[in-house]
Description:
There is one protein chain. By secondary structure, this protein is an alpha/beta fold. The chain has two domains: 208 residues, 3-Layer(aba) Sandwich (Rossmann fold); 196 residues, 3-Layer(aba) Sandwich (Rossmann fold), CATH 3.40.50.720. 40% of the residues lie in helices and 12% in strands. It has 14 helices and 13 strands. The strands form two sheets. It has an eight-stranded mixed β-sheet, with helices on both faces. The protein has a five-stranded parallel β-sheet with strand order 10-9-11-12-13, with helices on one face. Strand 4, helix 5 and strand 5 form a beta-alpha-beta unit. Helix 5 runs parallel beside helix 6, helix 8 runs parallel beside helix 11 and helix 11 packs across helix 12. It is elongated. The relative contact order is 0.08.
Amino acid sequence: MEIEELLHKISKKEYKVGVIGLGYVGLPLMWTFHENEVPVLGFDIDSFKVDCVNKGITYIKHLGEDKMSLLASSDRCEATTDFTRLAEPDALLMCVPTPLSTQREPDMEYVVKTTESVSKYLRKGQMVILESTTWPGTTEELIIPILEKNSGLKAGTDFYVAYSPEREDPGNVNFNTSKIPKVVGGHGDDALRLACALYDTSIVETVPVSDTKTAEAVKLTENIFRSVNIALVNELKVVYAEMGIDVHEVLDAAATKPFGFMKFTPGPGLGGHCIPIDPFYLTWKAREFEQNTRFIELAGQINTSMPKYVVQRTIEALNSHKKPINGSRLLLIGLAYKPDVDDDRESPTYKLMDYFSELGADIEYYDPFVPVIRETREHAHWAGKKSVQWDNETISSFDAVIISTNHSEINYEELSDWSSLIVDTRNAVKTVSDTHKLWKA
Length: 441
């Protein structure tokens, strides 16, 4: 099919989209296309997710039950575990994880396996778009060779390839998938035109760039920017604490400057699937070009050290109450990595739980959005553990409460009244003036 015919098909919304990976990126993307009357077929190896989509059951909190019900009842939306159906959609959008290995190097297993699956059913005229965050050059150096070798087809002639990084921010009520501009890089002009036309059907704005590696670099740059600035305020937090200065008061006041300052907030460490991981994709790739990324690596060192700083502050706080860390009962508030979501990927709370446990403390957690810890590769030893009840008897039974995530649903006045010792890493508690009871970390 000629490029003009494909563009016409997109404009008529007769161009079927396949979304591979129905997690925190793929599911909102699936909803966005559906909402804009584009037919969509979702793929996932997890039968639980597929069943939830087809039955209208929510498994990502911020998407909501109403939207899931609409997906399930729609005649232009379906989810499947049957990857032999990959030939059906006109475009295949890969939204699969790109974690780090134990050596902090890119783990491309999910991307490679997904690309190999796509290559088995790839047909002429199809478009393949990678949305997963990755190192610059992945599309050209990894994706296209696999697709061409296994299919016998030629990219840019028989099929089209593009890269468009996801920009999801779970729980952000001001920006959802459809409202966030989409950066798009294509393997050739035809691929770029097709990809932009596709996203234009459902996204507020497309931002074309010169090629796929530029688009890949855009995503890394966005998250490196956040990582570096968070590291800065985390370092300032430690320094100012020694000086008896509240870093949060400093940052609030600095944020009143209408130019030249952007506020970032310190915390107990980095969480989520992007900021703790993505910068290291560039540091790894940079070594191929004999380039050092000292600034990025220093930021990573600072951010990864924050959980241990919280542990040390907790030990000091317990000591001020004449209690050892060994044998103390500790309650972690917030398992999700950010407020008001159920996303616990890479949450620093897990690091805190591990560190405290190694020191002999008895660990529990409370999170209204994560009632039970799910099975994960990194934290399998905590799987099945349940959130404690929220009541005076339960909360007051702990020697110390550590606020790791500041959910707005939590009643911090009750927490202050019920707790004998609070270590606050998020500046969540405002009502306690007793420095013996409230410690900032």
